[in-house]
């Protein structure tokens, strides 16, 4: 990218917007397909921000499963072509239109809406699509805050009223959402039981998740025979999170307390959730789903939303909440990063974050 | 049974309770098993009602699936042995204890709680276990009002806010609950789509259910290809009732509107409900269960409960609500009735009502 003109430190405070011409390098696609096939790095000259527009320089933008699925055409959100890929980022405000009131050049921002196209060096967004975040929030945390931590936050808050000491159980406990759940449970004094697939380095993984706040981590085999709940060591969970489906979900359901809810937010096994009639009727178990994109749309301006971002950012600043293990990758290495993200079955491995800072 | 002493018309108004000795003939069991094997007609002398007790003569008591399952030991409610079978009835008050304030001899009552043991000629219950109902409510309707019509009423009221013109869809649409749903939908100006298994007399069954208030009745095959909802003939249902499970439930789910709820209250196919991940997450479909016994326990004294009985009885009195097709059977023919009830797969046939009047 090139900035054809050096920017004054604060254009708005001088009551005018300087003319400039920014060349953005963006990962664009004009048809669905595998990211390495259909994404192309394209240079575009951006117009100056007008009115409520904001020119930002993207600092970091993660590669999320939903981004890949969107590019593949497998996600319910369908972009207009040509589209810039990517939905999350942290960016620095470079320059603002003359009607922008709440943002200053130099501030860090994250997107309040999906589909903005964040895999780019620069972009022009509208002020109401952006939320300012403290620079004390690390780039990796800020770049990944709007999807997975928010999913964990809402699923813990919006389905069952939990009190300190209550138990939450989840499969896919090492997913990005899973890690966020463990950390929020620790911050909110909830017991967090995580279930993961068995693997050679299971001891290391358990330790890693317990460091994040998991009370206990069990393999799929161990959860079948555990007496953690029967023995009273932990209260029976009122809330379960499922991102796997199939047998894994069924096993989790068995441990739910009467009136408990299983919230599905993913289906990594590609198998449906099987719901026995007995628990539905006699134990009043409920099965719900959660999609952050819908919640955000329905609560765009809601005070709960700003409150959520405030709390999450505070936890990050207090070092009580960290981003998942990740690797920063330069934008021009996106093909390797997208391939690597795909080869981790179920995307539970390292998170790749495109680094444009 | 024999009444050893003729009763004064209203013992309470005379400020005293006459001594009497009533021999009750009851269907008792002391172990789980098939009803025809473990039920025995036993005579017991009943003590006079004291304090808040009420002596009743049972007029009619239905044979419900849950009664059979309880006798078989397959139901989550476990009786203390020896137990009198049966849970629903309509009875006539014969005589009341001296602290009974709200019931008069001669009144008709229905039980407010399950497990009272209603397959008997006479019984002594507590006043707070009984609800007076108008004698204008027919015996068959009164005897069967506390379980199936209440299940239909609550499922229509407590899960989704429905407006006149909204659509409800259900499988097992000719079950006792199904028939109640059709009738309540008609009374409340809701569209009621029923799904039934194909059978030789399908035309007759469809007509019968449409007479009760079903807007449309489809076979399992027809529901797979119907364009009733796509074409806009009917609004997409926000609420579905499932008493079958398996593929039948899956087909019903496909038609649910975004944010719709499937409520399971039975599992006649003995197959679980299969919940695809996509609809859970992206369509926000929810899967719940309903058990009248629990609701009644949790809302024993709730105004909503009395209001429900009031509304249902009014509908019966106005001839807008009828009992399912039934056959009155004398108490000493219970073995034949229990066997006949069992041979109707899924209990969707005729309802057998023990008649002691």
TrEMBL record, chains A, B:
Alphabetic keyword roster: Fatty acid biosynthesis, Fatty acid metabolism, Lipid biosynthesis, Lipid metabolism, Mitochondrion, NADP, Oxidoreductase, Transit peptide
Classification via Pfam families: ADH_N (PF08240), ADH_zinc_N (PF00107)
Limits of the Enoyl reductase (ER) domain: 37-353
Subcellular locations according to the entry: Mitochondrion
SUPFAM superfamilies recorded: GroES-like, NAD(P)-binding Rossmann-fold domains
Catalysed transformations (reactions): a 2,3-saturated acyl-[ACP] + NADP(+) = a (2E)-enoyl-[ACP] + NADPH + H(+)
Record keyword Oxidoreductase present: yes
Record-level GO cellular component terms: mitochondrion
Any single biological process term in GO: fatty acid biosynthetic process
Molecular-function GO term, any one: enoyl-[acyl-carrier-protein] reductase (NADPH) activity
Enzyme Commission number(s): 1.3.1.104
Coiled-coil ranges from the UniProt annotation: none
InterPro entries named in the record: ADH-like_C (IPR013149), ADH-like_N (IPR013154), ER (IPR020843), GroES-like_sf (IPR011032), Mito_Enoyl-ACP_Reductase (IPR051034), NAD(P)-bd_dom_sf (IPR036291)
Family to which this protein belongs: Belongs to the zinc-containing alcohol dehydrogenase family. Quinone oxidoreductase subfamily.
Protein name: Enoyl-[acyl-carrier-protein] reductase, mitochondrial
Organism for this UniProt entry: Drosophila lebanonensis (Fruit fly)
